[in-house]
Amino acid sequence: MSMKLKESFHAIKMLPNAVLVYAILMILLSITDRVFGSLYIVDMTKNGMTVESMGIIASLALTIMTLVDFPSGVLADIHGRTKVLAIGLAVWSLGLLLFGLSRTFLGFAISMAVWAAGIGTVGGLPQTWIVDALGDTGRADDKEVVLPYVSSVSQISGAIAAGASTVVVGLGMAWLFGAQALLAVIACFVAIFGMMENYGAKTRTHVAVGKIIKVLTETSKMRLVVLRAMVSSGTLSLFLTFWQVYLLRQLHASSRLVGPLVG
Question: Which Gene3D superfamilies match (predicted)?
Answer without folding.
Answer: MFS general substrate transporter like domains
